[in-house]
């Protein structure tokens, strides 16, 4: 019997194809595990004729609120929209100031600009990479209307001290929890400690839709009612619009998909935590700055980011070995052209600037196998050794 393998054998030497590349993130692997459930749900929505909001979105909102421990969840069409509406519902408007960080995804700051307010930056902490609480009070003025910390890479910001400042000065905290689904701060769900918490369900997030989606959570009944109205053209009853509204509704396909995926979020988060712990242990002896998990909280490892001064060389060398890496984020917000009018300069936020120069995100996703992680660790060890020659 002859077997056509496509592999050319010459003598004892066997030329094998190189192992498949390891992506930064593998959404296909997750989909394959859920295919039947998802297909059924999509067919149900398609035949229901309700394609925007509706029962699947409502069910997801209820389940997500329960999951994070909030009274209300309002589904919207993106994390950016969630932040925008949260700021409006908090009463932030033209001429106001909102304190936030330059080391984040740009959308945090977009939302502040959308309401006509000014982003006021404070640097991040050099170990946790979240808002440096010690710098906040010096930036508060009579115009400060909100503090908007970001739970960067899946680690909640120092919400205890931030809420203490906010409560003392009467300034609400709005949480950007777009990277922190299921994270906890002193036992409470990220997104539920501030007045509102904003989530993104962009496909690559820890809980990802198959398109755009987001949500706001809050304990406040009045804010929840206003958010429900604002996302849907501010209609209190059909054809009656109470204020300037938006079309920021979540669509039913995304609600159905998110409802299914939410049931797996805990297991996926535990897998992420195991992979992160293994990285931390196995990379400990290498000349890299590793991420840290602060005490009293639960990091959900949306991204596993290491710092090294020769980041670009390492990335290229890993790429050659079939290992995908990412950059989160190579240009801090205060140095973006779009925010040049804020008047910040290179050197203003040295911690964020260092992260921007040195950051490299390693592959980490719940379906990652042990042998994939072995390959990443071995490759990283090798490319760091090469650099020392
Ligand atoms: C993804 C993300 C957003 C924006 O969410 P979208 O759903 O992409 O609009 C906002 N803030 C942070 C920190 C994010 O990571």
Automatic annotation (TrEMBL):
GO MF term (any one): transaminase activity
Domain of life according to the entry: Bacteria
Keyword flag Secreted: no
Modified residues (N6-(pyridoxal phosphate)lysine): 205
Keyword tags: Pyridoxal phosphate
PANTHER family assigned: 3-OXO-GLUCOSE-6-PHOSPHATE:GLUTAMATE AMINOTRANSFERASE, TRANSAMINASE
Family: Belongs to the DegT/DnrJ/EryC1 family.
Protein's recorded name: Putative PLP-dependent enzyme possibly involved in cell wall biogenesis
Organism for this UniProt entry: Singulisphaera acidiphila (strain ATCC BAA-1392 / DSM 18658 / VKM B-2454 / MOB10)
